Amino acid sequence: MKTIGLIGGMSWESSAEYYRIINQRVKHKLGDLHSCKCIMYSVDFGEIETLQHKGEWEKLTRMMIDVAKNLEKAGAELIVICTNTMHMMADEVQSNIGIPLLHIADATAEQITAKKLKKVGLLGTRFTMAQNFYKGRIQENYGVEVIVPTEAEQGIIHDVIYNELVQGIVKTESKKKYIKIIQGLVSRGAEGIILGCTEIPMLIKKEDIEVELFDTTAIHATFAVDSALSE
């Protein structure tokens, strides 16, 4: 089993889910007494969130590179960034380390193509929905069309993430808003929905919608274990 390096804390709520899912997967694959070999570097999300909303992406990139290097020095054999948004700098991080970085969009896209879907909707932070680092990667590398909510709906999704979900707050009224937005994406032809923020699975479950649901937290964590156990 390779040692997984986890860049966590963005938020700690979703990082805890990564740790739980990863260890459950190892137990399932290897047996009851087995657990994951991993190292987590958990950042202060208060600092990260401030820099994100100030647009200080170069500073954030340097931070992520430094964290990844520290994990590599500590013995990590592959890197997992436990959040969707910070994959904005995944290529820069990968080019500065000598071990693989497992991209969350690649893991998710493999699941989408396995189900032979051609058009999916994407929910996430405003950064993830509006910029091209995530949806563009899926469209260009996997041939899957990715659509996003309207600008106003993106604002609703973003605000719920930062004002509620990252603080562990789950509201029924917010769930209703998300479901309505998802229904709008389905009416535009989405055959599945990517929960492209690792906190959204706290709010939206498989039984809430009629199309395929792609929980990126579970997908990424499972992919990390399978990669760590591969030859």
From TrEMBL:
Pfam families: Asp_Glu_race. The keyword Isomerase applies. Gene3D superfamilies: 3.40.50.1860. It is an enzyme of class 5 (isomerase). Keywords: Isomerase. One of its GO terms (molecular function) is amino-acid racemase activity. Its EC number is 5.-.-.-. InterPro entries: Asp/Glu/hydantoin_racemase, Asp/Glu_race, Asp/Glu_racemase_AS_2, Asp_race. PANTHER family: ASPARTATE-GLUTAMATE RACEMASE FAMILY, GLUTAMATE RACEMASE. Belongs to the aspartate/glutamate racemases family. This is Putative racemase YgeA.
